[in-house]
Amino acid sequence: MICSVKQSVTTTINGSDLFLRKRSPAHPIQRSSLFLPVLGETQRFSLSVSKPLHLSSAENLSLKARRDPIKCEAYDAADSSKPVEPVAPEAVNKVKIGLYFATWWALNVVFNIYNKKVLNAYPYPWLTSTLSLACGSLMMLISWATRIAEAPKTDLEFWKTLFPVAVAHTIGHVAATVSMSKVAVSFTHIIKSGEPAFSVLVSRFLLGESFPVPVYLSLIPIIGGCALAAVTELNFNMIGFMGAMISNLAFVFRNIFSKRGMKGKSVSGMNYYACLSMLSLLILTPFAIAVEGPQMWAAGWQTAMSQIGPQFVWWLAAQSVFYHLYNQVSYMSLDEISPLTFSIGNTMKRISVIVSSIIIFHTPVQPVNALGAAIAVLGTFLYSQAKQ
What positions does the domain Sugar phosphate transporter occupy (predicted)? Predict the structure, then answer.
């Protein structure tokens, strides 16, 4: 910034004769103005002189209006505030992953609780599975229409590659729901923790892939723990057991088809799962009608409403909404974290669901059964480490 003196006379006086006065009518003609911008503000002073004006030195200039020396500096407006320390990208990424995991686990636990409540009062897993897919599809269509989420740009080739993924997803979803309608939630998830074993076996014998020795060794506690938990299950049911096993196999094929078909596709995880839900809904609806049918649904609805009351409607809506949300968050997390981190998070999700369902539904568990579950989950964790 520049300090400037405007004057109408050019004769000189000594610097000691220069002083500040208030503007008054006594000196109307010979008048000088000194503009001193101090800390971003412009202060105006009037200099009245009775003798010719001369500045012999800037050092001799003193301002009686202010005892402290005034420092005139040139600075940019952005420098007037203290610099903000940048946040480390690693810290932000850790917080983001933590939020993804916490949301994913919480939504999954809530879904399993309400899903089991609905199935206990309304034992129609095909319709329940259809409603969860329909609710998620409707939510995403509304999001796209209102511009809350950006609609994906797809073509016919995209839907062709998505079709086998949707078929496998539909089978896995219905099979898991059928399993939970017959056995405890904890037992279903114990059996579903054996999914890595199916993944290795399918990849090895159908796709010809080979794995390191630690991967094969990690299958021993997975298979052994699941077998021990199944043998010692108090409420064992063959349909529930087979439903969980079919679900494992179907989700393995879903993952294989997804990896092969989505290479080079620029669709976000959220939109990818939305498209998957819509296509799965189209595939599942006619089968649900054929297997169960509107007559069975209507009779079951009257029974559930008479036993539970209007609260049953909330249960049904909650299980449908939370099913879509937890799957959507899991697919969104795949865009942000590594496969190893995702597999570890999936293992911890199983633990949270098993423990919470045992507590909420008061599921009787023998010590040997709990040991088998712990061994199976530990094997899943070891598999995720060895695979990477």
Answer: 96-384
Instruction: Give the list of residues 6+ apart from residue 31 with CB closer than 8 angstroms, or none.
Output: 8, 23, 46, 47, 48
The span from the CA of 205 to the CA of 203, in Å, is 6
At 133, the amino acid letter reads L
Radius of gyration of the chain measured on its C-alpha atoms: 37
Same domain, 337 and 235: yes
- The whole-chain average pLDDT of the chain stands at 78
SS3 label, residue 43: strand
252-272: average pLDDT? 76
58-74 mean pLDDT? 47
d(CA 301, CA 2): 84
Give the residue numbers spanning the domain of 66. Answer: 4-80
pTM of the shown model? 0.73
- CB-count exposure of residue 55 (10 Å: 0-12, 13-18, 19+): middle
Question: For residue 4, what pLDDT is reported?
Answer: 42
Q: How confident is the model at residue 380 (pLDDT cuts 50, 70, 90)?
A: confident
Measure the CA dihedral 180/185/190/191, to 10°.
Answer: -10
Cβ atoms of residues 115 and 321 within 8 Å: no
Written as one letter, the residue type at 272 is Y
- Between the alpha carbon of residue 280 and those of residues 14, 145, 212, 377, the distances in Å are 95, 21, 35, 29
Residue 75 domain flag: yes
Report helix, strand or coil for 5.
strand
Residue 73 lies in a domain: yes
**CA angle, corner 94, sides to 93 and 97, nearest 5?**
85
- The string of pLDDT tens digits covering residues 138-164 is 999 999 999 988 998 888 888 998 999
Pairwise CA distance, residues 276 & 165, whole Å: 8
Residue 386 contacts residue 212 (beta carbons within 8 Å): yes
